[in-house]
Amino acid sequence: MAVRTNGRSRIIIDAGVNPIYRKILKTYVINQDIDIVEADLKDISTDREKIISLLDDRAAALILQTPNYFGIADDYTDLFKICDEKGITKISVFYPMSLGILKTPGEMGADIAVADGQSLGLPLSFGGPYLGIMAASKGYVRKMPGRIVGETLDKNGKKCYVLTLQAREQHIRREKATSNICSNQALCALRAVVYLSLLGKDGFRKISLLNLEKASYLKEKLAGFVEIKPGVTYNEFTVKLKSDAGEFVKKMEKAGFYAGIPASIYYPDKKNCLIVAVTEKRTLNEIDKFADAFKSALSQVA
User: Fold this and answer.
1) What is the domain range of residue 35?
2) If you compute the radius of gyration of the chain from its CA atoms, what whole number of angstroms results?
3) Ordered strands of the 227-228 beta sheet
4) In terms of CB atoms within 10 Å, which end of the chain has fewer, N or C?
């Protein structure tokens, strides 16, 4: 979408964006004349100076994620303003549940916002099927792949929905089409709609707060005996151990807990870093037991 809009071919992406997303992105553009440039992190946070140095007249888009892979929640309004000055498309990757309390991509000035919708009432399915979320400012709507549903009134004055933009481009535009992939996430989308309808606006904010509060509770408990990486976080945070995080996860598995993701799976230089997540589904009793097991496992690998 960005390349089609401004005619440039370089994409700047922060190294804090989910590594799986970055791999998929490279696969998608492998046969296109698009250059993917990854900006290194400053520890586990976005290196703003590095990002700014890459925002030149060759850049088509800047992709940032908040919270990022390490759980750091950031406000990218300043970087997006620089993009506006240089005609660079701003793409935000977000976590749906966080928007109950965090600044939204739109409020930051993003042109395109994307997310994984699994957290919206869908059970874990070992990789899928899930649904994707994509939003764009009005100027990008006709560049979006797929079909756009619009709201209108029928002849009786009742609210109804129609396929407003439904170009049969896969059949007639060949390589110029915005979409040549057909898939169906209707059932997943329906589950998400039901979930959000039952929650309502106040319920959504409450769930969002529970994620933050329960993660903060665990972070405080762990802070007494392990190093917590600094930074503003939502429901995920990174701890630094004194030994290999992968081995620590195995110790925790024996105690009946999955401790988190060893950062070294995708970031070899962060062998001792462990990414821990807490959602609204965890009870305080479970969190307390997790913290006790964490402390016990630390003593075994020290």
Assistant:
1) 2-143
2) 21
3) 227-228, 236-240, 273-277, 261-262
4) C
